[in-house]
Amino acid sequence: MSTQTLMSTSEFAAIALASDQRIELVDGEIVEMSPVSLQHSRIVGKIVTRLTEWAEQGAGGMVGTELGFNLGPQTTRAADGYYLSPERSAGMEDYDGFWEGAPDLAVEVISPTERASEIEEKIVDYMQAGTRLMWIIYPRLRTIHVIRPSQPRHILGADATLEAPDVLPGFSLAIAALFV
């Protein structure tokens, strides 16, 4: 019987930060991430731009893409987009490493090749680590699944407005604007 040695987040960081590949660490194993499509890239750009504008207009905090979040001792995920509150991100502007813990908001844009089980595993990883809100964006369906810990999933269509006053006070975005 062979025994597999699983990688820790610190071992992974040494490899990932020196690599030019898109990779994550999931339950101690490296998982390669494929390049994204133009549509995926545009949607991420739009939502991150809107979140950045909102944060810079007074809400504060940190917004970005693809930051590595250490969600457990053997799991490092990189959300397509994220938000960290001012309280959690204060003084971290020059930090150069993966974030210890979960973002307040994690945004994932779903590609046609992603499997439902992979998406659900990401959701579980983020929620168990303390993420307060996830937006799972399905471009082909033009819908967003709004996920919060211990609450039912809400599915919003392109005619709805994306808001989260408890996590993103004052933020509002017409969902249709993401798909133009």
Structural commentary:
With 180 residues, the chain is of the alpha+beta class. It has one domain (36-179): tt1808, chain A (Alpha-Beta Complex), CATH 3.90.1570. It contains four helices and 13 strands. It has helices at 9-16, 38-59, 86-89, 116-129, and strands at 23-26, 29-32, 62-64, 68-72, 75-78, 81-84, 99-100, 105-109, 133-138, 143-147, 154-156, 161-164, 168-174. The strands form four sheets. Strands 3-6-8-9-10-11 form a six-stranded mixed β-sheet, sandwiched between helices. A three-stranded mixed β-sheet has the order 5-4-7, covered by helices on one side. The longest helix is centred in the first third of the chain and has 22 residues, at 38-59. It starts with 8 loop residues before the first helix and ends in a 6-residue tail after the last strand. The model has no long low-confidence stretch (mean pLDDT 92).
Q: Strand sequence of the main sheet, in spatial order?
A: 3-6-8-9-10-11
Rg from alpha-carbon coordinates = 16 Å
Which CATH-level-2 architecture?
Alpha-Beta Complex
Number of strands: 13
Q: How would you describe the shape?
A: globular
Mean pLDDT: 92
Strand content: 25-35%
CATH fold field value: tt1808, chain A
Spans of 5+ residues with little confidence (pLDDT < 50)? none
Helix content: 25-40%
- Give me the CATH superfamily: tt1808, chain A
Structural class: alpha+beta
Largest sheet: 6 strands, mixed
Number of structural domains = 1
CATH class: Alpha Beta
Gap from first CA to last CA:
54 Å
Tell me the series of helices and strands, N- to C-terminal. HEEHEEEEHEEHEEEEE
